[in-house]
Write a structure and sequence with these properties.
The structure holds two protein chains of two kinds. By secondary structure, chain A is α/β, with parallel strands linked by helices. Chain A folds into three domains: 31-156, Aconitase, domain 3 (2-Layer Sandwich), CATH 3.30.499; 160-254, Aconitase, Domain 2; 263-400, Aconitase, domain 3, CATH 3.30.499.10. In chain A, 28% of the residues lie in helices and 19% in strands. Chain A contains eleven helices and 18 strands. In chain A, the strands form five sheets. Chain A has a five-stranded parallel beta sheet with strand order 4-3-2-5-6. Chain B has two domains: 2-134, Aconitase, domain 4 (Alpha-Beta Barrel); 138-167, no CATH class. Chain B has helices at 13-16, 26-29, 41-44, 65-73, 85-94, 136-143, 147-166; strands at residues 2-6, 50-52, 77-80, 97-100, 112-116, 121-123, 128-130. In chain B, helix 5 packs parallel to helix 6. Chain B starts with a strand and ends with a helix. The chains are: A alpha/beta, B alpha/beta.
Amino acid sequence: MIHNRRTSAEKIFSRVTGKDVKAGEFVWAKPDLVYLHDVLGPMTIEAMKRIDNGNVRFTGQIVVVNDHIFPPKDVTSSNNEKNLVEFAKNRGWIVIPWGEGIEHTLLIEKGIILPGMLVAGTDSHTVTAGAVGAMGVGLGSTDMAALISIGKLWFKVPETILVKVHGKKGKFVTGKDVVLKILSILGTNGANYKSIEVRLDKECGLSQDDSLAIANMTVEAGAKTSIIMNEAVNKVRTDIISDYRSDYEELDLGMEGMVPLIAAPYLPSNVKPVSDYEGIDVDQVYIGNCSNGTLSDMRETAKILKGNHVKAGVKLIIVPATRNIYKQALEEGLIRVFVEAGATVAPSTCGACAGLHMGVLAKDEVCITNINRNFRGRMGDSSSKVYIANSYVAAASAISGKITVPGE
Amino acid sequence: MARIFLFGNNIDTDVIAPGGYLHLPLEAQKVHCFESIYPHFSKRAKRGDIIIAGENFGSGSSREQAPALLKEIGIVGVFAKSFSRLFFRNAINVGLFIGTYDSDSTFSDFDEVLVSFENEEIRSQNSVLHFISPSGIPKDILMAGGMINFAKKVIENEDADEDKLTG
């Protein structure tokens, strides 16, 4: 290994620490931006009060997004959000207006998360920042409280797994299938503590929204962070991506012959072709969260639903990830397609994706969805089951009432 | 004596701290801990008990409620072949001891054992399991009793350094 070849993680951590750091090193680092949500945010401010009476030494941007339980479902969640907003406003933090959307999708859309940044959030899906070439790292609430109170936090510079994706994508195949394939190879902890860097060749024909779906679910392989370079839509940033033959493990992934995939209960890595589960009855179809509530997902869903109606007895819930996506879906006539198909269009919230509210599953119910986790009890009752697939598959299953391969 | 509660691989945070109750105080969440795979865990476990699990314990969410609930219930140590990154950090931060082990555990559910954090071993009448404690900064945080105390110390030290420079 030649000394000055560096991985993406080494470049970003070197910049924020002002030192030449290597993978495996423990460092104290100050992220460029941190963000908190309404579930771990209230715990963060309580911990801040205990550490140093709520004093702030962190000098980067601090953003609050009330997205997990919005609109609030009960008095407790409503009070939590009110207190968080008051605490944040008193300190001049950026408070995102109510109902703007789900943080990971929203902060990218608003240009608050920018390429090359080190970003920390009180949520495991902070890794989504990788979609625009930023390094997003999830933290718990006391870690976040320490970071804001001290001004910096300890991190281990992660090792890197570089995934090179090539080949043209097939019909009804999306970024969701790419990341499910990666999870099936790495398993649920194959990238624990590591950075997953994904290079999407120009010929793959994947969009920015596909990048978002891929970055988002890298954490399901245990990844600490992710960096996506999608050559079809991004300018190659040599100051961000890993240098050729720097210190990474390499994984090669061809898209030729790839078919829509599905992750069956109870692990996101339990991945098979959708056809393996075809015909299983579903009670609910849930489309939209921080990985796949994008405008592309809305369009893919509408393409399948147009002129069709949801199967009698099946609940179809569609969640545009942000207010802006909702608005664009409205302007493109997609919302009309959803409503005419018998869907319930829900506000932008984490909602039932994390079993919080707005579509929580009942006993023994089966849900097919484009969210990111299918753990036991994830979306509701312990006996319910969650299958994860792309939006085409979810929408096609809503029409037939069974897990369905789109286009058949 | 501690009692052992055995768990398998990939015990995720949704199972430890289900989403529907995360916004409630810990006291109200306790009864739901492990409810989908181990009903009434919070009533069966007693203060001083430990958990021994397989690979990838605590996978999934950043929710600190997961280790905080285990600590609230009285669990004094979680021992696993490996931990997910976020659970690892969160456990250390709330002052819940976690250790890793390589060899196969031969313990059974509810075995009564003695845990020696000093000698890094869990010992029953006829079996022993060696574990490895956290090292480096995570060890320092644990020794301080968790991140709250550790962060206080860091701030005190930095303020003292500044006083030296300016004084």
